[in-house]
Amino acid sequence: MQADGYGFKDMRKTRLKPISDKTRQRNQIWKLVCLTRMAYITAKYGYLLCEYCGKHGYFEDANSDNPLAVWGHHIDWNRDNTDLSNCMIAHNQCNTHIHDNNLKDVYQECFKGELSEG
Ligand SMILES: [Zn+2]
């Protein structure tokens, strides 16, 4: 997998602006919250899934560009609210759908979304 070593992913992670300590700390807390929520979902359903569409999701890192990788969506849209109750595990593509459509009525284990790709 040499081609992936210093390909787009690493380029993409290069940031123009340095992350503040506050943001870095917030991201670290959110990562723990996401992992905790993913562990709960996996234990409950037997596999990792998206709480929006209910379909299987892949565990990758927070910056994954795989549409079917899952990570936490801030239910109240406030990135400073890192409470576990504000974390809903969603596919990247479902998260995009939620944000593109300004959906505020989603919640943990709502399973009402449609997976755009079969
Ligand atoms: Zn989904």
Determine Rg (CA atoms, Å). Answer: 15 Å
Poorly predicted regions are: 1-8
The best one-word shape is: globular
Oligomeric nature of the chains = single chain
The profile of the biggest β sheet is: 3 strands, mixed
How large is the share of residues in beta strands? 5-15%
Quote the distance from N terminus to C terminus. Answer: 27 Å
- The helix tally amounts to 4
Extended strand count: 3
Run of helices and strands: HHHEEEH
Mean pLDDT: 88
Structural class: alpha+beta
Give the distinct bound molecules: zinc ion
Count up the domains.
1
Helix fraction by DSSP (H/I, runs of at least 4): 25-40%
Q: State the strand order across the main sheet.
A: 1-2-3
Characterise this structure:
This protein is an alpha+beta fold and 118 residues long. It has one domain (18-100). It contains 4 helices and 3 strands; from the N terminus they run H-H-H-E-E-E-H. It is globular and about 35 Å long. Bound molecules: zinc ion. Zinc ion binds at residues 50, 52-53, 55, 90-91, 94, 113, 115.
